[in-house]
């Protein structure tokens, strides 16, 4: 199971870097526009929050790479992935109910549920 846990973390960390961390850190407004968000005239705050979230995402990805190397020692990263998934399901469900987010954000509800379930299922067990 730990091999599957490693692969899960490696793929997840890489996806986080490619699709969220770097794009938000480098160009959060362009990233938001690409996803279908309406960009306000004043973008300083949105850009600041986007870059901040990009930095957080990259930090989590780094921990994911460490967890891929040794899932048992870094099993807390699996806990973190589960918790982040639960909170993001709530945030995105609220946006879905309020109908104030692009469709891609609604689809992410399913993505966060699947990632959380996979992290729970692939939670590393103590090596024999």
Describe the 3D structure.
- The protein has 128 residues and is mostly helical.
- The chain has one domain (2-121).
- Helices cover 79% and strands 0% of the residues.
- It contains five helices and no strands.
- It has helices at residues 2-26, 28-35, 44-69, 76-98, 103-121.
- Helix 1 (2-26) packs across helix 2 (28-35) and helix 4 packs antiparallel against helix 5.
- The chain is globular, with a radius of gyration of 16 Å.
- The N and C termini lie close together (12 Å).
- The mean pLDDT is 96.
Features of the shown structure:
single chain, 128 residues, mainly alpha, 0% strand, globular
Task: Please specify the SSE layout and strand pairing.
Layout: H1 2-26, H2 28-35, H3 44-69, H4 76-98, H5 103-121
Helix pairs in contact: 1-2, 1-3, 4-5
Mean pLDDT: 96
Q: Supply the number of structural domains.
A: 1
Tally of individual helices? 5
Extended strand count: 0
Q: Helicity level, as a percent range?
A: over 70%
What would you call the structural class? mainly alpha
What's the oligomerization state?
single chain
The best one-word shape is: globular
Radius of gyration equals: 16 Å
Low-confidence stretches: none
- CA distance, first residue to last residue: 12 Å
DSSP strand content: under 5%
The secondary-structure element order is HHHHH
Give a short account of the largest sheet.
none
